[in-house]
Amino acid sequence: xxxxxxxxxxxxxxxxxxxxxxxxxxxxxxxxxxxxxxxxxxxxxxxxxxxxxxxxxxxxxxxxxxxxxxxxxxxxxxxxxxxxxxxxxxxxxxxxxxxxxxxxxxxxxxxxxxxxxxxxxxxxxxxxxxxxxxxxxxxxxxxxxxxxxxxxxxxxxxxxxxxxxxxxxxxxxxx
Amino acid sequence: xxxxxxxxxxxxxxxxxxxxxxxxxxxxxxxxxxxxxxxxxxxxxxxxxxxxxxxxxxxxxxxxxxxxxxxxxxxxxxxxxxxxxxxxxxxxxxxxxxxxxxxxxxxxxxxxxxxxxxxxxxxxxxxxxxxxxxxxxxxxxxxxxxxxxxxxxxxxxxxxxxxxxxxxxxxxxxx
Lengths: 175, 175
Prior knowledge:
The first copy, chain A, is α/β, with parallel strands linked by helices. The first copy, chain A, has helices at residues 16-29, 47-52, 77-96, 108-113, 120-128, 144-149; strands at residues 5-10, 34-39, 58-63, 102-106, 134-138, 152-160. The first copy, chain A, has one domain (5-165): P-loop containing nucleotide triphosphate hydrolases (Rossmann fold). Chain A is 35% helix and 21% strand. Chains A and B meet through strand 1, helix 1, helix 2 and strand 6 of A and strand 1, helix 1, helix 2 and strand 6 of B.
């Protein structure tokens, strides 16, 4: 019997979203249909999107406006909140739908952590997801309610990163 | 200018190999050619292999015999050592070859940590790899020499895992 699985990749190290994309590949290798919902991110020229979004069985949607303004009271925040709310709606739909066996909510923890969306409706939707559904969530600073709702949680810890040694972001590595 | 990049995903948490597979997808999305060399693993029915190994631009080879015998002095160890040595040869070749822009050495840390292969030739090959080459290595207990050779290192820490709650390994999640 297949159980509902809820996985969470959090922490400040590199590898959270890439681990989720690796799981997506794994799920597609088993013929599953997948919904990818990206919060915060708005860059559609990155390698993972180019690679996966054209595949049959993958629905890939971005609900982000990129970097947040530094001032949380900036009027520009409203556009980010609106985008995140749309992402949450899409996430709740994908979690409830039988169309997708695999649901990836990329950077949802970031959106939650910055108060762009509330955590309660997401936790409720996770708890009502069907058996056999695989849900993978990523982002720094996962809220405790999400950690509690997940069955498998990994903290990615930065040991060292090329940025510190002055290495620039590079195609195939950082994007 | 593209630099040589050496990334390492280690630790006891879930997500090391999947992060590497996510990076593979990212690299393929940018049109790179990739060599995947798997140590230890011998199961070719897993989702990631089904998914990636049939793609153009991917060379996927396993040099593993599965789980090690408990007794390191068991005669059965020799077959594991031999497989790992062949994997190391293939790794050194891929690192030196212009054919591959992305080289993934999956579970190489496991093979090193169990003394199946020596670390020195690998470190030497990493240090001589060309600019622009992306190398990703995975596995628990990365040796200090490998951490020193890498520019970006993430420790995947287990916060919780479904196994502990009695959840069985499942297609699309664990394999």
